Amino acid sequence: MPRIKLPALLSLILMSQILPASELTLQHHGVILQYHHVSTDTPASTSVSPEQFTEHMQYLAEHHNVISLQDMLYKLSRHQALPDNAVAITFDDGFTNILENAHPILQRHGFNYTVFINPALIGNESQQLSWQQVKQMQKDGVWFANHTNHHQHLLSRGNMSKAQWLANLKQEILSAEEKLQKELGYSLRYLAYPYGEYNSDLQALVKELGFIGLGQQSGAVAPYSDMTALPRFPAAGVYANLKTLKVKLSSLAMPSLYDPLNPELALDNLQPTWTTKIDTSDIRPTQLACYFQGKKLEPVWEMQDVFSLTVPTPLSAGRARVNCTAPSKQDPSRYYWHSQPFFVPTNDGRWLD
């Protein structure tokens, strides 16, 4: 894949946000998977067993085209079609069990993948890879990208002003990128948000720095996706079930036309209502279904392509999301998918792990 210089990358990011969804084909959509641990000895909520991971990879080998994250984002930024049913594989945090348990399986299939690491933790915590191991994996074709330097809750401000908070974030992001450049010889300028948490101010900073941001909310990606908060499907814990994962792997990016909602909620706005406009050229509005914590929500249609949603109960501290899906008219076996995340601090301003 050609290396993109920063000014060209910035122009591609801006260009990718203005292409009408109606001009795209189903081959302009891809899926990014997100894993943490591949182990039976780590927290269940962020882990997939080696046996489950083997099953996932075998299914991908038989039914999908696994491509590198770089190739996927490069093609989408240039509005180029992807291979049929394209999937990119990513891991967050540089845990040693990725090398021990996942890497041999991925190598056996010839799958490229990307690991988002915290440079300040590499070689300094028992569960983390060493730089020697990172460089050996790099020789095997593995790519590494920015997960910030220390894996902190980025929305935590304490007593800092907004300007101080943004300055600290900038330093946290850039110092990690500089370390990656020094150790590995390249700078992808991809940023995976720790805990998947971000807000509109952080997105603006990411865009200003020329980075592509990746979250942990579910959904597919397309040229019109927000390149400061790309969705990824978590595939561990309760989401490791291959039966439900199959539907997600064939999903399409919901063509939302309004500016995205700020996912960070103030404590006086814990039951938000928001309005969304979608391109309905390949979607029947009557088939749109939205869910919150397993319960179905009823969209209120204001126009044929504009609807509003309200969270049914006030949100508590932590992370939550509303998912909306609708089958494609071209291929009813594939579903457009959109996830609206919400991030809520505790009453004293802390952020929960």
From TrEMBL:
CDD domains: CE4_DAC_u4_5s. InterPro entries: Glyco_hydro/deAcase_b/a-brl, NODB_dom, Polysacch_Deacetylase. GO terms for cellular component: extracellular region. GO terms for molecular function: hydrolase activity, acting on carbon-nitrogen (but not peptide) bonds. SUPFAM superfamilies: Glycoside hydrolase/deacetylase. One of its GO terms (biological process) is carbohydrate metabolic process. Residues 1-21 form the signal peptide. Residues 85-353 form the NodB homology domain. Its main location: secreted. It is found in: Secreted. Transmembrane segments: none annotated. It comes from the Bacteria. PROSITE patterns: NODB (PS51677). Keywords: Signal. This is Polysaccharide deacetylase. It comes from Bowmanella pacifica. The lineage of its organism: Bacteria, Pseudomonadati, Pseudomonadota, Gammaproteobacteria, Alteromonadales.
